[in-house]
Amino acid sequence: MPEASGTVSRALREAPPDRLAEAADRAIRAALGASRTDVFVADYRISGLWPVLDPELPDAGFLACHGVAQRCFSSQQPVLDGGDDGRCRVYLPLTVWGERLGVLLVELPATPAASTVEAARDIAGELALALRAADRGTDRYRRARRRERLSMAAEMQWDLLPGRSVTHGAFLLAGQLEPAYTVGGDHFDWSVDGDRLALTVLNGAGTGLSASLLTAVAVNAMRNARRSGGGLVEQAELASDTVFFQHRGERHVATLLLELDATDGRVRAVDAGSPHVLRLRGGSVQRVPLEQQLPLGMFAETRYEVQEFTVEPGDRLFVVSDGVYAAAPDGGEPYGERAMARSMRATRLQPATEAVGTVMRGLQSYHADADLRDDAVVVCLDWRGRAGGPGGGAR
């Protein structure tokens, strides 16, 4: 049913950015004979999915579909839910370039044929692409994502992110920031260019808006160097010089810069501070040893050197800020010593997109579910190998 996807695609192109859900609803009803649709978007913590078309949906109705929608979101596969009235609710992942935005609900009069499900999946892909593009032209979907007000610092940090996950034939990458609504300086950035993945993780200095501003300067300096063709050394040195000449050494940013060659699994690294790399391989979690160099901006004209290590197919890398591995609530044992490794091993059968949440939930539990005292960032990279291969979990 390619004509159904084409009909919806045209409707989305013609709709204003804030009316995509309504345009999709009308087009899907006409193309597939649906009796109802809705769009559910993931919140900033990825702790729930929230309706866009019917935000006032009664709690009973919302909770009845929420568990099925969450199963679709987690598995990234269509889920069919038949009702006593013979109708069938089809839940489809809204995902673009590996970034999970939410779930599309399509209610049909009967259990659909496989071809109809495939057509609905294509439609969900078109809608996801449109939603991602529409974020620049409307606040509607961002409002639906937030369960509480963001601090000014957090607003800046979320706008600075490249996304929360991305996929490639050779890898799956995901990241998460906490505390989601008040995060200050911790951050991650990435860029995919052919067979190369550039990844940076920043351990922000300070708190609140000043930390967010410092991180924004460092991130944009590294992007400037990278987009001008500069390698890891040029990125680190431009960012370091920029931060130093802004703050004269009084402030600096601990940063880890990585570049993965997707053809052979070789990783080049500049370790300019405290973010740690841990590798999950064969059920064992080990820290990747890197020689730590000066944080960005500590001294004028600091020079950096590249180190290298390799990943094997099936390896999972975690990059974490000190808000994760050094967390020590009430002066107790640091989270990273044992508990973090346990959380990481528990993710072996999960894709990277789920694994970051598992580690963050472990951290929250370690803090007895109290608000985190420090920013925390977790980035997870699943290396599938040059051929791309199925699956996303570590061996």
Automatic annotation (TrEMBL):
EC number per UniProt: 3.1.3.16
InterPro entries per UniProt: Bact_Sigma-Reg, PPM-type-like_dom_sf, PPM-type_phosphatase-like_dom
Annotated PPM-type phosphatase domain residues: 168-383
Keyword list, A-Z: Hydrolase
Molecular-function GO term, any one: protein serine/threonine phosphatase activity
Source taxon at top rank: Bacteria
SMART domains given in the database record: PP2C_SIG (SM00331)
Protein name according to UniProt: PP2C family protein-serine/threonine phosphatase
Taxonomic source organism: Micromonospora harpali
